[in-house]
Design brief:
alpha/beta, six-stranded mixed sheet, 7 helices, binds zinc ion
Length: 231
């Protein structure tokens, strides 16, 4: 399994876990160039082999990569704490299957042309731009649990092993969300939503799932559009 760790500052816990569980990991420096992450993804996509991205501050466990490897889905991600946004899966620990790369070879290049107010090919938008394009093609990120640890001081969870909020990657890209509460008594996976829910999970979705165990809470405010630089 190809594993790639792009980094500017590599957390020692990230590195230690990768050296232990995935000694084949390619550590790729992307610091100092706001487009380097984009160009890396473009290259990985063009190589056409499935790959796992493990970002510089994510600590995988012994079961993380085997779970991704065993999963039949084409696009999978472990959730991790994202501060006030709760537990999400973006590109921190994410599997891009070979069939995804071959079926949508244009996606990364197209993402580099998106004008959303931040510079094209800007590293911090790689996940949301590529996610948006895949979402439009009907591809949903398959969420994996339990969360992997995210060693980001601003976004650390309570202890990295519990979650009260799950949020599907798509909605904040689409701009509108509705909030639901999972009222099942044991964990449940919703394949059509690409969503795992633990009891009590709060979920934000972009359309009504019409499922009896996903109870509507309230309309979430529209996601704030990031203001463009005005001239
Ligand atoms: Zn999966």
């Amino acid at each position: 399994m190809r594993v790639v760790c792009p980094f500017e500052t590599l957390d020692p816990r990230t590195e230690a876990a990768l050296r232990r569980y995935a000694p084949q990991t390619e550590f790729v420096p992307v610091g100092g160039d706001a487009e380097a992450y984009y160009w890396l993804l473009l290259r990985l996509w063009a190589d056409g082999d499935g790959f796992v991205l493990v970002e510089h501050d994510i600590e995988i466990g012994p079961d993380t990569l085997p779970a991704l490897s065993a999963c039949p889905q084409a696009w999978c991600g472990f959730v991790y704490s994202c501060g006030q946004l709760g537990y999400q899966a973006a590109f921190g620990c994410t599997w891009f299957g070979k069939e995804l790369l071959l079926r949508f070879p244009e996606v990364v290049r197209e993402s580099g042309e998106i004008d959303d107010g931040l510079p094209r090919r800007y590293w911090q938008r790689a996940d949301s731009r590529i996610g948006q394009l895949l979402h439009r093609r009907g591809i949903r990120l398959h969420h994996h649990y339990p969360p992997v640890r995210h060693w980001n001081r601003a976004k650390a969870g309570r202890d990295g092993m519990h979650w009260s909020t799950t949020r599907y990657l798509g909605p904040h890209l689409e701009g509108t969300t509705m909030q639901y509460r999972f009222i099942g008594e044991s964990a449940e996976y919703f394949p059509d939503l690409g969503l795992n829910c633990e009891p009590g999970a709060a979920v934000e979705l972009d359309k009504d799932p019409k499922h009896p165990r996903l109870e509507r809470v309230k309309d979430a405010p529209k996601a704030k559009a990031e203001s463009k630089e005005s001239d």
